[in-house]
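Troubleshooting log. The previous structure file for this entry was overwritten by mistake, so regenerating from the original sequence record. Sequence copied from the archived sheet and checked twice against the printout by T.R.
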Amino acid sequence: MISKIRALSGVFYTLLVIPFTILLMYCFQNAQRKIRQITAKGFITLFGVQAKIEGELDPSAQILIMNHQSFMDVIYLEAIHPNNLCWIAKKELGKPFLYGHALKAPKMILINRESKKEVVFLLKEAKDRLEHGRTLCIFPEGTRSKGEEKFLPFKSGAKFLIEHFNLKVQPIVFCGTRKCLDIGALKFNNTPFSLKVLPSFTPQGEQWFEELKEQMQTEYSKMYLESKGQ
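Regenerated output below.
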């Protein structure tokens, strides 16, 4: 019951605060990053969200590649990262009026992952954001996982994008965010979660993407077993 009440409070916070956030982002475009960060930090502070962080964020990294369990992944990274982040998400997320403008106002990149024609659009938009000093963020699994021990398969779009622009990559591994917040199920247990920030690198070799997934999976498996007390 407490979890559901907390989740409803989170929804209420969103409905109350996000419209003002969107309005401010449209009115003060040069301050969009600061506006988003204040909103995210407000959520983290209000609900007393706790996370264990290992590793250091690299401001020079051009793209962050992460596993995805919960909307908490986005909220928390928006709150703590020093750079102006640009999330790459599926186009369907831009359709709801409120959430859609929360993505469109700060010029997040919304793509149709099922269409091969979207590759040209993605490259064009990514080039624009990189030229404006923004850090791209992508979930190669393509959707939220259930927070179980194994990652979903990584889609090749992230690999193509990174290789095309020869981007400096920083991997981040989240564990426990779905248990903390599952907004779709109206569950907000607010349990502590963890994230490990791995060293940034510029890809080399033919198998770097597969090796990266294996490295991230290995780190996640350790974190998952620790969270289970094993």
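The two ends are 29 Å apart (CA to CA). Archived copy saved in two places this time.
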